[in-house]
Amino acid sequence: MPMNFGFGWVWIFPVAGMALMAFFGWTVLNRVFRTENHVSPKTPTLDETQDPLTVARERYAQGLISKQEFDQLTEDLIRTEKPNRRF
């Protein structure tokens, strides 16, 4: 009879539990503190050369904004647009 002081295989559960907690903790912390910035493929990016009205039209066409939001955006953009004076 081996000398295990009456504990048998019970010691494996706390060791396995600590190993699982370390693994999941490392995984969660790795996700939280990741330094790369991932851009979702559905997130539209604004190019400096794009016209805001064009961006609003694209977002409406993709279904990212509602009809009311599109109307409000275009109304605000047209109202605040500087007149293009050419002489």
UniProtKB/TrEMBL annotation:
Annotated source species: Sulfobacillus benefaciens
Native organism taxonomy: Bacteria, Bacillati, Bacillota, Clostridia, Eubacteriales
Sequence intervals crossing the membrane: 6-29
Protein name in UniProt: SHOCT domain-containing protein
Keywords assigned: Membrane, Transmembrane, Transmembrane helix
